[in-house]
Amino acid sequence: MKPHTPPQLTDDNLDAVLDLLNEAVFVYNQEMQITHFNLAAEQTTGFNRTEVLGEKCVVIFDKSLCINNCELCMTVRDGKNGQVEFRSPFMQKNGSRRLGEFRAGHLSLSLKNQTHVLVSLTDVTEIDRLRNELKTHHSFQKLVGKSPVMQDLFQSIRNVAEYDSTVCVLGESGTGKELVARAIHYESARADRPLVKVNCSALSDNLLESELFGHVKGAFTGALRDRVGKVEEAEGGTLFLDEIGDLTERVQVKLLRVLQEKEIERVGENTTRRVNLRVIVATHKNLEEEVKAGRFRQDLFYRLNVIPVYLPPLRERKEDIPLLVEHFIEKWNQLQTKKLKGVSGSTLGLLLDHNWPGNIRELENTIEHACVKTAHDHLQPTDLPLHLRTTPGANGGIKKPRRRLTKKQIQEALKECGHNQTRTAEHLGVHRITLWRKIRELQIPV
Predict the structure, then answer these.
(1) Which residues span the domain enclosing 415?
(2) Is residue 15 within 8 Å of 36, Cβ to Cβ?
(3) CA separation (Å) from 404 to 14, 39, 52, 392?
(4) Residue 400's pLDDT band (boundaries 50, 70, 90)?
(5) 305 and 166, same structural domain?
(6) Which residue has the higher pLDDT, 177 or 116?
(7) What are phi and psi of 430, to 5 degrees?
């Protein structure tokens, strides 16, 4: 059986293929002359293809950097078939100096039997600027973020930590509600006393009651000795009740007594015990709706909701994603022998485009997945789970998630949104960094 020979691209069809790509791509020959230059490359560099075809590739590089031994020169001279990745400044037609992420590899073409190299270019100037800016980590008690909503949250934590009022942390699953509870505790005067956590959704009604309030010997089958509950364990410190919306009516009544009277009774005992503790609760449920539905006591709701603290989902603070990614990579480097330097610009772009329904927990798991899988020192798009790299097409096929915006579309959207770039990005369904990059590429006045 004859080995399968893949079809070769020819000069006749290569331009049409390259113009379908969203990535800036150009091809050069052994003389370092540019032979192909796609539409995306025109937008990224500002050069028309007619201005660069036949010219040396140095036309888009800072000439002071090109001394005949750059990565591109070495690729064509060494004849290596592997992919070369590097970063380098490049020049736009208007003289702007930008930072590019380049990938180069040999291309098999039926063109005079010459060696050709295909190069992709990603403008990472803005992403690199953000990364450098975020190197000065904005963190607070293991909470990471520099967005305005997170800075407001940090200040709220400092404010409420001074008092013993009950705090209700609201937010979607995976947003880090337990970290907020920990931050409040360790910023408070109770920091040197216990912080005790109970997940109210993880235990049955009877077990949860015993877990919280303790029991005496013989209170029920299996109660072979007295047991101290979590409320008493938190004496002098803080009790954190996660998923408080899942409490049953019976446990709700006993918790109300803890909040109002600061006292408990162990299961199977009539003796009242005084307790001194602060209570912080968290839930992803809408407790007001639970009260209306009759599943949650109104009086308990009012006692719990003294100081509500809202933790926003990750999709509402995407400017924190680069910082969080760096944080999780550093966390990986501290625990593993395989060390990573960071994340590529194109990979970060995919992470910014995702809406993160699983929030911080999903992002952390995604970065761990990529760290395990990667063979590079910077995480690449191929290291990410498939659903982040592709989305289902209209007929069940696969398409790239990023929109290819035209200059006219962006101009019309900017006008409609009063030239507010944040609102324009939301209107177009892209991240504001993506919009900023497109505005620069297309030289749209703002």
Answers:
(1) 407-441
(2) yes
(3) 20, 12, 24, 17
(4) very low
(5) yes
(6) 177
(7) -130, 165
